[in-house]
Amino acid sequence: MKYRIELSGRGGEAVIGKVKREFYDLFEGEDSELDIDDYVWNDEYFDENEDVEIPEDIRPFEPGDWYECDDIAHEHGLSIDSAYITIYEGDDILVENGDVHLLEAGSTGLTLESVDEIIPSEILEDGEAYICINSYEKGFFFSYEFEADGFDISKLTLFVTDVDGWELIGGASYDGQDLEDLGELSTSGKGSDATLMLVEKD
Q: Can you say whether the dihedral through the CA atoms of 178, 182, 187, 191 is positive or negative?
């Protein structure tokens, strides 16, 4: 029998990357009037800010190309705090639906498995700077189809990566076999943020 799993809700994309201290100081220096959000999201940044000079050799990415600054982390997924799952048998027979946390109930429910935890302050050396960029989305994130003799929700595992405190579902397996996403993503943007940080350890 064919089964289909759909995951929807709120989530997004998170990237974390190192930046040069000179770039950090340009935006975070005491007298700086530069806006890091404008640089991150505006691909016409230099056309609209002709008086701003940022040498190419210290730019972590060109304005608007934020997704390329990902040497520490790059994850896209569904937040476990707002994840909704629907499971069908065949094309239209509803087997299960509800909030992911409500369907996680020990041995009788699905499993949320942590596969990675990325904490920039523990990765970077003292004095290093990095940028954390989040793009928030809402909608339909993942869909999977597989064959089985019957459906047992206790055999379903959702894989979770913690990116600087943001826990994102990014994959799934059933009965020990990884499931391949069908690529039916359909989301709309709901916000974004970008933060420059300097690691200062005791």
A: positive
